[in-house]
Amino acid sequence: MRAETPWPGRAAITLVAVLLVAPLAALVWRAAGIGGLTAGDVAALRFTLWQALLSALISVALAVPVARALARRRFAGRGVVIAVLGAPFILPVLAAVVGLLAIFGRAGLLNQGLVLLGLPRLSIYGLTGVVLAHVFLNLPLAVRMILTGWQAIPEDRFRLAASLGVPVRRVLEWPMLRAVVPGAALVIFLVCLTSFTVALTLGGGPKATTLELAIYQSLRFDFAPDRAAMLALVQLGIAGGFVWLTARVTLAQTLGPDPGRVVPRLDGRGLAARLGDTVAVSAALLFLALPLAAVVAQGVPGLAALPPATWPALGRTLAVALVATGIAITLALALAGHGGRLADLAGTLPLALSSLVLGAGLMILTLPLAAPARLALPVTALLNAMAALPFALRIVAPEVARIRADYGRLSDMLGLRGLARLRLLLVPLARRPLGLAAGLAAALSVGDLGVIALFGDTGTQTLPLLMLSLMGAYRLEAAAAVGLILAACAFGLFLTFDLWGRHEPRH
Amino acid sequence: MSLVIDDLSLTWGDFTLRGSATVPEGATVAVIGPSGAGKSTLLAAIAGFAPPGTGRILWQGRAIHDLPPWQRPVAVLFQDSNLFPHLDVARNLGLALDPRGRISAAARARIDEVLASVDLAGFGARMPGQLSGGQLSRAGLARVLLQDRPVVLLDEPFSALGPGQKDEMLRLAAGHLHAAGRTVLLVTHDPDEARAVADGIVTVIDGVVGGPHPVAILDDARGPLADYLGR
User: Fold this and answer.
1) Domain range annotation of chain B
2) Closest CA relative to residue A20, chosen from A383, A366, A335
């Protein structure tokens, strides 16, 4: 008999289903009236796929040497490298764009260097910039996934290979990479497929518009919900197909703490290998750390000139993030407690339906009822929670399953159920994954621009939306300062939740 | 008045358990049989952890097989994981009295009293990780004694202890539970354990429940039981 009370799980599945199906139905209804894709739509579709493919391939290609170096070398500052590798995942995308512009932009460090050498300037706008930003944001994810693959090779296999004198590369590394790299590339491809903020700030124009950007423009500027609906369905069709493929790839292992295992090996002791590893790690560190440092360097001078709108926007950002985190964690716990295929599906489908697609559907649904701005903050919180749910569920579910296996019968016999079970059993024992999941959910929500850009106005703007309007008005110094505050919020919330999770109260 | 297993039949995966048995109130019976024959499934069925099947389980004439575990008159001492690792001993024992985790002054007094009765006076503030194997077993026994449930299932509860300590712990548990008037089912694969504490023997062989038989059956067995006992 199923002893645990199943209703929270069922309620969570129902809520997720409604939140996915209702906007989808609205999109299908509106899209029915329109003929087909225009030339511009086809161009957007082609650019979306092309930039995602390039971003994914470049990310994994660069990640392989970095991951190999981290897998086989123990060196001073390895912890710092791992920490820097985690940062771009937490950093709000808009803040990352400010950092990237400072390094690779028109007046950035790179171009200043090129000019000094008498070389032509590089432009960060268009395909180059979009792919550059996506590689910056996703290289760490690729390194983490491939590093996990390397660390999963048992140590004695390396010893066996060495004693037999067979090349490690061919018998151990190549098969592992063949198994791990396609999955990593697929995950990154999917993330880039639904990228909105990067395309909005570094892309744009007829040559560099993604589907998400086209949806936003048709809703926000062209007042063409029919066209937006159809684009959203195209986007959903593509993303859905790839999510179906990706469902087998576990995201959780890539987000967990670094196992810190370094496999001592007999190969890779030569000078060339040592040099190669050093270059790989240093280059990756430089590529990731320079824009991060630039976020601070660019932001500090503008702090004195922050617009007064910053503080209400900060309050709204934090409130939305905390509500979104609460919803995401509640749903993740309910789904993890329920288990089974339906719960799994409810935790995976939000990957296919990006916030912007869902937001477009909700906007079509609610336009006759209320002005979008009135719903901006609740809708943003809800959709941010949905976006974080797949990650939160994959982080929390294994621990919840372990607790049930170890203490489920004891709890059932004692009658430890419902809220008491949550308070006395689940929260204390799953504290660590809960803290990590909450931190990620909060950071993702703080940095989100998609939904709020659809629904928000100056009266409901969050920090990312304020930053966008400052960038649009070429108040770049103030924008950079808001970006710094935004980044501080994301890292602050992430660290607060994560530290709460790591802190063991008594035993 | 007794615990009645009446024509039970339940399937768990590709394993089926069936049979009947009647355990008199206040008796201590040993459930004996080869591993994989269904001993633990029988206990899970009585405690409410197994999937529902056909047939009935009755206590004092009242059907209990449809009740969830927490409403059954059944307490279980598991092989391991008898205490939550993140709660101290007193809070663990408090859950036996109130599953919402509150401990009244009266409850506190009862917890101290039961702890003293199993030679763990003053151990209430210890975390389970700080206890030895024998102390953990006694804390688990204290939890079962505090649970106000007339039927107690012991699922090879002391198998982690050394032979001498295991024997001592078994006699301590059987003595306390008998004195408290509990009806006890002890799962074991060791005939000596059964001889030491049991009033009767329930056999579970190839998924069939039988008994209770007199303890003497251990020395006078025929058929599959004799094969199992090695005679």
Assistant:
1) 2-73+149-229, 84-148
2) A383
- By CB atoms closer than 10 A (0-12, 13-18, 19+), residue A261 is exposed
CATH class of A43-299: mainly alpha
* Residue that is written with structure tokens 């960038």 in the block: A471
Residues B178 and A165: their CA atoms lie apart, in Å, by 67
The domain B2-73+149-229 having CATH identifier 3.40.50.300: the answer here is yes
**In 3D, which of A397, A151, A138, A181 has the Cα closest to residue A259?**
A151
Two domains, one topology: A1-33+306-507 and A43-299:
yes
Can you say how many angstroms the Cα of residue A502 is from the centroid of all Cα atoms in its chain?
22
Among A406, A413, A424, whose Cβ lies nearest the Cβ of B75? A413
Per residue in B78-125, pLDDT (tens digit) is 988 889 999 999 999 999 999 888 889 999 999 999 999 988 889 989
- SS3 readout for A54-85: HHHHHHHHHHHHHHHHHHHCCCCCHHHHHHHH
Q: How far apart are CA A352 and CA A332, in angstroms?
A: 17
Instruction: Summarize pLDDT for A389-448 with one digit per residue, the tens.
Output: 988 998 898 899 999 999 999 999 999 988 889 999 999 999 999 999 999 999 999 999
Per-residue model confidence as pLDDT tens digits over B12-52 = 888 888 888 899 998 899 998 888 788 888 999 999 998 87
pTM of the predicted model, to two decimals?
A: 0.86
Asked if the C-beta of A3 comes within 8 angstroms of chain B's C-beta atoms, the answer is yes
Distance from CA of B203 to the nearest CA of A (A): 24
Interchain contact A431–B (C-beta under 8 A): no
Kindly report the nearest CA distance between residue B23 and chain A, in angstroms: 21
Query: For A329, phi and psi rounded to 5 degrees?
Result: -70, -40
pLDDT of residue A2: 43
Residue of chain A with shortest Cα separation from B93: A414
Predicted complex ipTM: 0.91
> Chain B: residue nearest A504 by CA?
B86
Contacting residues of A for B87, CB less than 8 Å apart: 424
Instruction: Pick the residue from chain A with its C-alpha nearest to B95.
Output: A414
Q: Domain ranges for chain A, please list them.
A: 1-33+306-507, 43-299
Of all residues in chain A, the one with the smallest CA distance to B129 is A507
CB-CB under 8 Å, A413 with B68: no
What DSSP element (H or E) covers A405? Answer: helix A372-414
Does A429 reach chain B within 8 Å, measured CB to CB?
yes
Contact check, Cβ <8 Å, A414/B70: yes
B223-226 CB contacts, 8 Å cutoff, 24+ apart: B225/B33
Largest CA distance in chain B: 56
Superfamily grouping for domain A1-33+306-507 = MetI-like (1.10.3720.10)
CB-CB neighbors (< 8 A) of A412 in chain B: 48-49, 68-70
